[in-house]
Design brief:
The chain is an alpha+beta fold. The chain is 49% helix and 9% strand. It is built from 12 helices and 14 strands. A hairpin with a 2-residue loop joins strand 8 and strand 9.
Length: 414
């Protein structure tokens, strides 16, 4: 089984190489156990490699998207949290090849999940407590030694590790949401700080664009430029600083020019030699739909909305399959990529009122709940429940993104 990489562009085998090799590669402590020892000297108990269930208790269920979001979130905290460390496992159950703690990317999605719950009615007090807890965890990845400040791939107390522009940008987007939902200016300041870090990754090589990784300036990726455009435009909305608007337009236009296929899909990256990796991933369409909708909202220009609709249409056609009975399924892997695509569909629906894409998204999430949950209350990567790729262990990223998904479903009113 492939493990998630430290940064969200490519798969990895679960071990660290090159710049990341200084990180602890020791096994993860078991979730729920005391992990206050240094992970470089800790060892994993045998019980952490087998699925833990309680046969005496039936698996809790939930009928509404809101209740499902809450129940899955609580399940994640109980399964993945490492007692005494304010940190989380990468997978549950932890495997011998796993690092001691999660990379930043999966943890950033737990912040997205927390923000999604914060939008649910009646959860204001719980949201603030949850937000404080997850931000304490994220702060363990903060690096202020290198300039500009940003968040590194692995907890800073254990090693210096690489800093990915895209991983930081996902955090920045959620800091804006946290600011909007709490009014606390510290979150806006953190979002601005991350935008500064992203801007430091822009060079005029290839006519512009932001690199994928600070330490590996070999390619400029849609996964770093798409969310950067969105963050810049959202910061403009919050500050009315036109510098952010100009950056948002510049990044959006460069990405379209260099990384968009003729049919409207987005390719993965372009190397400094000008070679385009034409792999397509759902999340790259998602962020660019969001950016186009934001530009339409800000400027009033209809062309941006038309472009968002074009990308939504081709992405839906490309990334879904339809069973003979008419059931639509999104890809049976990389669910986080799909959830980021749903963000684009959600924002487009708010702009044009056309519900088809979001209706399919909500239906697929509903199907996953009834067909892909395991005995631990976690949901497989294949939302149809037909394949068992992650039968042995499930990734924090894959579960946390579904909390966000059910939160989106709860707020969808066609």
């Amino acid at each position: 089984m492939l493990l998630l990489s430290a940064g969200c562009g490519q798969p990895a085998n679960g071990t660290l190489t090159g710049t990341e090799a200084s990180l602890s590669g020791t096994p993860a402590p078991e979730a729920g156990t005391d992990a206050t020892v240094n992970p470089s000297t800790s060892s994993m108990s045998d019980s952490s490699t087998s699925t833990s269930t309680d046969d005496a208790k039936p698996l809790p269920d939930a009928a509404t998207p809101a209740d499902r979001a809450v129940l899955l979130y609580e399940t994640i905290l109980s399964r993945y949290a490492v007692k005494g460390m304010d940190l989380y496992l990468e997978r549950y159950p932890a495997q011998s090849e796993d690092n001691a703690f999660s990379y930043l990317w999966p943890l950033s999605e737990l912040l997205s999940a927390t923000n999604a719950l914060g939008r649910l009615p009646g959860r204001e007090d719980a949201y603030r407590a949850d937000l404080a807890a997850i931000l304490k965890s994220i702060d363990a990845y903060r690096d202020t030694v290198r300039k500009p400040p940003a968040y590194q791939a692995y907890p800073a107390d254990f090693s210096s590790s690489v800093r990915y522009y895209d991983d930081n940008l996902w955090l920045g987007l959620d800091f804006v949401i946290a600011y909007r939902q709490t009014g606390d200016s510290q979150y806006l300041d953190l979002a601005k700080e991350i935008m500064t870090f992203a801007q430091s990754g822009w060079t005029e090589q290839l006519g512009g664009g932001i690199f994928w990784c600070e330490a590996k300036k070999k390619s400029k990726n849609t996964c770093s430029n798409g969310p950067a455009a969105v963050l810049a435009l959202e910061l403009y909305q919050e500050t009315q600083d036109t510098t952010y608007l100009e950056w948002g337009k510049k990044i959006y236009n460069w990405t379209r020019k260099n990384l968009q296929a003729p049919d409207g899909l987005y390719w993965d990256n372009i190397s400094l030699e000008g070679t385009v990796d034409k792999a397509t991933y759902a999340y790259n369409c998602g962020t660019m739909i969001q950016a186009a909708v934001l530009l339409h909202t800000i400027t009033g220009k209809a062309g941006y909305l038309t472009e968002a609709q074009r990308v939504a249409k081709v992405s839906f056609e490309h990334f879904t399959t339809t069973d003979p009975d008419g059931t639509v399924f999104f890809p049976p892997k990389d669910p986080w990529f799909t959830i980021v695509l749903f963000r684009g569909y959600r924002d487009l629906y708010a702009a044009d009122g056309k519900a088809d894409y979001m209706q399919a998204a909500v239906a697929n999430l509903d199907y996953a709940w009834t067909h892909a949950r395991d005995e631990n209350g976690l949901i497989g990567r294949d939302w149809s429940g037909r394949t068992q790729e992650d039968l042995v262990a499930k990734h924090l990223l894959d579960e946390a993104c579904l909390v966000e998904g059910y939160g989106m479903a709860a707020g969808f009113q066609p």
